[in-house]
Write a structure and sequence with these properties.
- The chain is an alpha/beta fold and about 100 residues long.
- Helix content is about 30%, strand content about 20%.
- Strand 5, helix 3 and strand 6 form a beta-alpha-beta unit.
- The longest helix has 12 residues.
């Protein structure tokens, strides 16, 4: 399993936020990303829609990294090794200086 630091996320990267609606409503990245709750993620459907060539890394984000790791395992088990967990999740992203929108 790959891990990436939040500061390595750039516009154009595929970012999948797997947090629940309440957490997401409270704070979210101020850059393009896709939101699908962890228990609703279907790796085959996701890749067909958002990464059809399979050539980009899917960066998976949660609150601190634990749930993102579980989702990354689902992708890997489905045959998609090009996923990475955002280390420290949204907490670390804000700490590292990424813009986070809050309500």
């Amino acid at each position: 399993m790959r891990f990436v630091k939040p500061e390595s996320l750039k516009n154009g990267a595929i970012i999948l936020d797997v947090r629940g609606e309440e957490e997401y409503a409270h704070e979210r990245l101020a850059m393009p990303h896709i939101v699908i709750r962890a228990d609703k993620v279907n790796p085959d459907k996701f890749m067909a829609e958002y990464n059809p060539k399979g050539d980009k890394v899917v960066n998976i984000l949660c609150t601190s990294g634990g749930v993102a790791s579980e989702v990354a395992e689902k992708f890997e088990e489905a045959g998609y090794p090009n996923v990475a967990v955002v280390v420290g999740g949204i907490i670390e992203a804000e700490y590292e200086g990424l813009k986070v929108l809050k309500n």
